[in-house]
């Protein structure tokens, strides 16, 4: 049983795949717990240097499984606990020194926006569509949407999505800054693989720490961020990889001098 999420780790790359295509990859209760466990498994694996987040089927993620909520007799307490499990996974991924790229196709709705924005870099296919729909069913934002969405597009634009029944096309999402790239549907998988391989073939640890500094820094004081930056760059400088790269850069610069 995969409980709706597949995990494959090979050659430093972890691929996390939503796998409930018949339900547009909406998260039900077992899938929520699986997301949390996968996040902890991936971020605790020292062999992993980069993460791809993708989905099987026509849609990336329709958010929480409202049908399951309505038909299983779930209480508000159970919904809160389930949201908490998903939030634990989001926070675990977002605060880890691991760069993540998301491959997004089709519908991204409700909490799917927050799951998508768990990634540091989002590539969308030209058929992707983005919508909130929380208020349509009398619910409020979850899965990081109230924080991650305004961080990506600004508060005013985030409220446009949350307070109106507005759907963004892939082109509009790119213009808003919700996604980093838009590609042809047939090129989505190869482009995301290319990005992840670029991280793995480069200064992998430095890319990972850059994502961590930006993510964690958003909730701290400037002084705390500056202290973390100083400690992190010092630790990086002492690694064999950085020593080799810094020396190569210095030597190349010296050759270019008059």
Automatic annotation (TrEMBL):
A single GO molecular function term of this UniProt record: isomerase activity
PANTHER family: ENOYL-COA HYDRATASE (PTHR42964), POLYKETIDE BIOSYNTHESIS ENOYL-COA HYDRATASE PKSH-RELATED (PTHR42964:SF1)
Record keyword Ribonucleoprotein present: no
Enzyme class: isomerase
Lineage, uppermost ranks: Bacteria, Bacillati, Actinomycetota, Actinomycetes, Micrococcales
EC numbers, comma separated: 5.3.3.18
SUPFAM superfamilies: ClpP/crotonase
Family of the protein in this entry: Belongs to the enoyl-CoA hydratase/isomerase family.
Protein name: 2-(1,2-epoxy-1,2-dihydrophenyl)acetyl-CoA isomerase
Keywords: Isomerase
A Pfam family this chain is assigned to: ECH_1
Organism: Microbacterium proteolyticum
Domain of life per record: Bacteria
GO annotation (BP), single: isoprenoid catabolic process
InterPro entries (alphabetical): ClpP/crotonase-like_dom_sf (IPR029045), Enoyl-CoA_hyd/isom_CS (IPR018376), Enoyl-CoA_hydra/iso (IPR001753), Enoyl-CoA_Hydratase/Isomerase (IPR051683)
